[in-house]
Design a protein that fits this description.
Strand content: under 5%
Number of domains: 2
Shape: globular
Structural class: mainly alpha
Helix content: over 70%
Length: 449
């Protein structure tokens, strides 16, 4: 790969990142719309579906293993102009995704009542959640394939198609969710479980579009032909060696934030309400970091495959600067307009005051999280997913335990808990940056000598 000028690299970073940001924003908005529609059925339906979705967060984290592994390996092969290898990785990842997700689907289908029952809710609420989870888990193969197809496309340098597919699927999902919940548009009235069936149908349509695109070829990477579909343990090992730490990282981080919620709930119900609103703001603020982190993974992987190590460093730097700029701007908005942001969600003066105070330390952490997201993504692009697993997981859990124990032992509110991230986030960001610099330097020396 010929060296590219910084302007061209900036263009590549932004072109890969903005569709990912848009895609995640659409997914966030879809979750809000689904919640609003289910909420019209009452508190029992909302609580039951919410419990099922909480379980699905962990399942999605586990399924991300093959997606991340395929993304990195396809990107490295694509960058090294080994298009046949990239296509082989795509086929193997799809095949192994089905093999891994089928037992998960069976276990989820038959174990839904037990899993939802762990929350200890009322029998009526548990039944709603179990019915919802039964459909969602029973159709998890399609979810896995959709994640995988998107990961392969990004590895081949195409993030627009996954974005468009998600946009189409979301529109269909909203239409079907409303129709299947309330029996509109000639569709059967299924209640809360209608939301699960709508999600499944929209994902089938979305994956079908991705499958056609992969068959036709994405920048030369294609799943056309009968060869390389038979599962090979050696290739699965390569995919999962990269992917499993990334999936485990997401699961442990999700558990950390769940533990934080438990700490918050011990303070007061009003604090918990404020925390949920602040967490929604957090999910929006993360979108630029996630987008540029995904772009860094794909582009660093491509440059590593092409042995263009200077470009790998440049790409990571560009993505980091973009991420810091965007997330810092959001941080300023959060800090200055914290009261107004909380006011969009609640008119309770106590909840508003608690949440606004909690948003301000959250705002100050934005630049550090921006670095954290991108440097983690850049490291994954080199094939190193174990270091981000260790550092990010330890960083989250130290902050959660430090903030939670301090708030409960010495008194404090949401501000105390969120302020703990001001202690850990700078350290985590620095460690990830230093690791990436050392990795690139080591790779450069190996290439020279």
């Amino acid at each position: 790969m010929d060296a590219q000028p910084p302007a061209a690299l900036r263009h590549r970073v932004f072109n890969l990142a903005w569709p990912v940001i848009t895609e995640n924003f659409l997914q966030t908005m879809l979750g809000i719309v689904d919640t609003l529609l289910v909420a019209r059925l009452g508190a029992e339906a909302l609580a039951g579906v919410g419990a099922a979705i909480q379980i699905m967060f962990f399942v999605i984290s586990a399924l991300s293993a093959t997606s991340v592994g395929a993304n990195v390996l396809v990107a490295q092969a694509f960058g090294g102009h080994a298009i046949a290898d990239a296509s082989r990785y795509a086929k193997q990842a799809l095949a192994w995704s089905v093999i891994i997700s089928i037992p998960l689907a069976i276990a989820g289908f038959y174990g839904s009542s037990f899993m939802v029952g762990v929350f200890g809710m009322e029998p009526e609420v548990t039944e709603v959640g179990a019915n919802y989870l039964r459909v969602t888990m029973g159709t998890v193969v399609v979810l896995s394939l959709m994640f995988l197809g998107s990961g392969v496309m990004r590895g081949a340098g195409n993030s627009r198609t996954p974005m468009l597919v998600v946009a189409i699927a979301n529109v269909i999902n909203i239409f079907l969710t409303y129709g299947l919940i309330f029996g509109e548009f000639g569709l059967p009235e299924l209640g809360a479980v209608g939301s699960a069936w709508a999600t499944f149908i929209s994902r089938v349509i979305g994956f079908s579009i991705l499958l056609v695109a992969l068959y036709r070829g994405v920048n030369g990477v294609s799943i056309r032909g009968w060869s390389d579909w038979f599962p090979r343990l050696r290739l699965a090992d390569r995919i999962l060696q990269i992917g499993i730490p990334a999936g485990l990282e997401q699961m442990l981080i999700s558990t950390g934030f769940l533990t934080m919620t438990i700490f918050v709930a011990r303070i007061s119900t009003l604090t918990l309400a404020a925390h949920r609103i602040a967490f929604n703001a957090l999910s929006v603020s993360f979108l630029p970091g996630i987008g540029f982190g995904v772009a860094a993974t794909a582009l660093v992987g491509q440059t590593i495959g092409a042995q263009a190590l200077d470009e790998a460093d440049t790409v990571a730097s560009i993505a980091t600067r973009w991420s810091v700029a965007w997330m810092s701007a959001l941080g300023i908005v959060f800090f200055v307009f914290a009261d107004q942001i909380m006011g969009f969600y609640t008119d309770d003066p106590v909840v508003l005051a608690i949440g606004a105070a909690g948003l301000r330390p959250l705002a100050l952490t934005q630049p550090f999280w921006a670095v954290l997201f991108v440097q983690s993504g850049a490291l994954r692009g080199t094939g190193d997913t174990r270091y981000p697993l260790r550092v990010n997981t330890i960083g989250i859990w130290v902050a959660v335990l430090l903030g939670g124990v301090t708030a409960l032992s010495f008194g404090g509110a949401l501000t105390t808990i969120w302020s703990a991230f001001l202690v850990t986030a700078p350290v985590t960001a620095f460690l990830l940056w230093r690791r990436f610099q050392r990795t690139i330097h080591k790779e450069h020396l190996a290439a020279v000598y």
